[in-house]
Design goal:
- With about 130 residues, the protein is α+β, with helices and mostly antiparallel strands.
- It contains 5 helices and 5 strands; from the N terminus they run βαααβββαβα.
- The protein has one domain: Aminopeptidase (3-Layer(aba) Sandwich).
- Helix 4 links the parallel strand 4 and strand 5.
- The longest helix has 12 residues.
- The termini are far apart.
- It binds coenzyme A.
- The site of coenzyme A has 19 residues, from strand 4, helix 4 and helix 5.
Length: about 130
């Protein structure tokens, strides 16, 4: 099933959502989650009101961390969709929603060269390549 933009919404995460977000992140990559102390980063993002839960037909399917930490420009720190919900258009619609709510005209993010799906989602949402860190 593909999701249309109307079926996707963002809700500000609060302290009661921390376990949900930690679960999404842990299932994405247990090793990175532990080694990079991402639970603490998630806690901070939630408390700073930088984390949103992604809802597809009102079901929580992932989260996005967004702030203005890139030279005061909109910055997507992390976007994670639960595996069972990937490839259904949710990533692209989430990027569209983030760009709509951003207070800056430009929104930046970064992804690994190997992450072709994220690059495809970004390109479909109108992002263009700005540079590479090597
Ligand atoms: C990257 C991610 C956010 C993209 O969200 P998504 O909901 O899966 O992506 P979409 O369904 O919106 O698809 C975007 C494009 O990628 C393509 N795509 C999605 N999954 C794919 C797969 N498994 N194989 C090939 N192409 C795929 C889609 O087909 C779509 O292009 P199309 O419409 O032209 O076919 C999601 O896959 C994810 O959470 N991945 C793990 C975490 C991650 O890598 N986050 C990004 C780094 S911050």
């Amino acid at each position: 099933m593909l999701f249309t933009e109307k079926m996707i919404s963002l809700r500000n995460a609060n302290v009661n959502d921390i376990a949900l977000v930690v679960g999404f992140d842990r299932r994405l990559n247990e090793e990175e989650h532990v080694n990079q102390d991402r639970e603490a980063k998630i806690n901070k993002a939630v408390l700073d009101h930088h984390c949103s839960i992604i809802l597809a037909s009102n079901i929580p399917v992932g989260f996005v961390i967004f702030d203005y930490g890139f030279f005061d420009q909109g910055w997507i720190e992390l976007l994670v969709i639960e595996e069972a919900y990937r490839g259904k258009g949710i990533g692209v619609h989430t990027l569209d929603l983030i760009c709509e709510k951003s207070l800056t005209k430009k929104v930046f993010t970064s992804t690994n060269r190997s992450n072709l799906i994220m690059q495809k989602a970004l390109s479909k949402a109108g992002f263009t390549f700005a540079g590479e860190l090597i």
